[in-house]
Amino acid sequence: MTAFFQSLGLPYEWAWTVATVVAIVVVSLLVMFSVAMVIYVDRKVLGAIMLRRGPNVVGPFGLLQSFADGLKVFLQETIIPTAANKGIFLLAPIITFTVALAAWAVIPFWDGGVIADINVGLLYILAISSMGVYGVVMSGWASNSKYPFFSAMRASAQMISYEVSIGFVLVCVVLFAGTFNLGGIVRAQQSFGLGVINAYAVHPLLFPMWVVFFISALAETARAPFDLTEAESELVAGYQTEYSSMSFALFWLGEYANILLMCSLNTLLFWGGWLPPLDIPVLYMVPGIVWFLVKTFLFFFMFSWIWATVPRYRYDQLMRLGWKVFLPMSLLFVAVTSGYLMATGHFDKVGIAEVPATATEIVQTNPAQPTAVRGQS
Amino acid sequence: MIQAIAFYFFATIVVGAAVMTIMARNPVHSVLWLIMAFFNAAGLMVLVGAEFIAMLLVIVYVGAVAVLFLFVVMMLDIDFAAMRAGFSRNAPLGLAVAAVLLAELLLGVGAYNAGGLTLGSPDGSAMQAADTSNIEALGALLYGKYIALFEIAGIILLVAMIGAIVLTFQPPKPGARARQDVGKQIRRRPEEATVMKHPEIGQGVEL
């Protein structure tokens, strides 16, 4: 896209800036649109499993329900409790929402279809998702109310606990791929399993790690069965209790954007991202983004399926699962995986010393040279 | 030019946030400003090409350390009047700390200008091999040249961790409620826990 803006007569720096801003706006809008549709899907799936119809009034098949809800909260009055700490109270939903969108910067939708193709992409995702806890903690404290504060305490303990095991799971994937770049990880999965399957999850060492990652993703996004932060039977609505109108909607949107992000990470890290499931030339006729979206949607379906099926965990069970089951297990798998890869000579094959083509992107500090910083999408 | 804009943007926010950290009346606001400073310092790191360090700064400091910090501060019940009353008493100590920090800063700047250290390239920019990424360069150094130091640091951290666990661990009291054994709970079948009773009217149940 940079080349297009350069052809309009802009110098390289400005063409790059404009192209990046345009890409950010397009991706943000598309993510928001997907969030609206995915909320509808969530309600439909829940309805189907509970033998209800789900939303079916607004628009054909109720497709416009989310937009109607959006309009409704937009027109509502924003109520700020008098005892609340006003600045932080208003800042918290904005942080949740911004952080949820920021992580999409490094997600490749197809080969090369990414805003920032940086070589620390996976670390960036970890860093940004660890920021997500601030929205919850700040809202819980600023509401100056008991239930939101309990919820904030629960949320921060929960997110920190499960981030640890997610980190170790990611180490296993990175050991196999030899790169932190998300595009590189997807490319490394091509014809990985038995020479035809484009997925890491078929490997006996990585499949358990995928299960751990999936469950940790549920806990990280506070989805059922780990939705203790907004357990309505104990905490009213958790940290969102005092929020109304758009500030409530921002929490809601941020939460679903995070869920979609986790689904797409499942796709990218373990199930071959934009690659078709099997390494057969015919399947490559379908554009990569279609495969990516289909796989992500399947994971989202699993998220709602689990929500409708599984009862909520107790808090001590949640902590036990995170620290006493997942942490030792993922730690063991890091050791076993690296040992296995060392023994089979995997590191010589991947060629760790060899630098991927995109690796020098961010370390170059001089974008005035057109060759130094590659364009995107 | 974009680098210059980005640098001054991040640097201004870091300095401003640092000032606000010590100026803010509310300790929670202080911690939030501190987090702001951390985050923008990470932005500066990206700017000089140390993207791995930048990400680690955000993951470790913003994502974990500052959360715990914020947590402790949030739970404090702070009496602002008492805090202000203690200001004059603690002022000499605070001034001493400030003087030491200023002296260290001046010393650091002086040493840097004298050019005594050769960690980076002479013009002050970070040493960056053009064809290796940050992570690989760091990994090669940590696991190659400095492997002994790295392992020693790891052992020290492990000892510290075990020490913290030993210090805070309290063995369950003898008479305390039994611990939950998940395997045992799952193995338990309905027949072991429930009985069917068919009580006669007005007779009650023998348990």
TrEMBL record, chain A:
It is an enzyme of class 7 (translocase). It catalyses: a quinone + NADH + 5 H(+)(in) = a quinol + NAD(+) + 4 H(+)(out). The keyword Chaperone does not apply. It is a multi-pass membrane protein. Keywords: Cell membrane, Membrane, NAD, Quinone, Translocase, Transmembrane, Transmembrane helix, Ubiquinone. GO terms for biological process: aerobic respiration. Pfam families: NADHdh. One of its GO terms (molecular function) is oxidoreductase activity, acting on NAD(P)H, quinone or similar compound as acceptor. Its EC number is 7.1.1.-. InterPro entries: NADH_UbQ_OxRdtase_su1/FPO, NADH_UbQ_OxRdtase_su1_CS. It is found in: Cell membrane; Membrane. One of its GO terms (cellular component) is plasma membrane. The chain crosses the membrane at residues 14-41, 88-110, 122-143, 164-185, 197-219, 249-271, 283-309, 321-343. Belongs to the complex I subunit 1 family. NDH-1 is composed of 14 different subunits. Subunits NuoA, H, J, K, L, M, N constitute the membrane sector of the complex. NDH-1 shuttles electrons from NADH, via FMN and iron-sulfur (Fe-S) centers, to quinones in the respiratory chain. The immediate electron acceptor for the enzyme in this species is believed to be ubiquinone. Couples the redox reaction to proton translocation (for every two electrons transferred, four hydrogen ions are translocated across the cytoplasmic membrane), and thus conserves the redox energy in a proton gradient. This subunit may bind ubiquinone. This is NADH-quinone oxidoreductase subunit H. It comes from Erythrobacter dokdonensis DSW-74.
UniProtKB/TrEMBL annotation, chain B:
It is a multi-pass membrane protein. Gene3D superfamilies: NADH-ubiquinone/plastoquinone oxidoreductase chain 6, subunit NuoJ (1.20.120.1200). NDH-1 shuttles electrons from NADH, via FMN and iron-sulfur (Fe-S) centers, to quinones in the respiratory chain. Couples the redox reaction to proton translocation (for every two electrons transferred, four hydrogen ions are translocated across the cytoplasmic membrane), and thus conserves the redox energy in a proton gradient. Coiled coil: none annotated. It comes from Erythrobacter dokdonensis DSW-74. Its EC number is 7.1.1.-. Belongs to the complex I subunit 6 family. It is an enzyme of class 7 (translocase). It holds the Pfam family Oxidored_q3. InterPro entries: NADH_UbQ/plastoQ_OxRdtase_su6, Nuo/plastoQ_OxRdtase_6_NuoJ. Keywords: Cell membrane, Membrane, NAD, Quinone, Transmembrane, Transmembrane helix. Residues 174-207 are annotated as: Disordered. Residues 178-200 have a biased composition (Basic and acidic residues). This is NADH-quinone oxidoreductase subunit J. One of its GO terms (cellular component) is plasma membrane. One of its GO terms (molecular function) is NADH dehydrogenase (ubiquinone) activity. It is found in: Cell membrane.
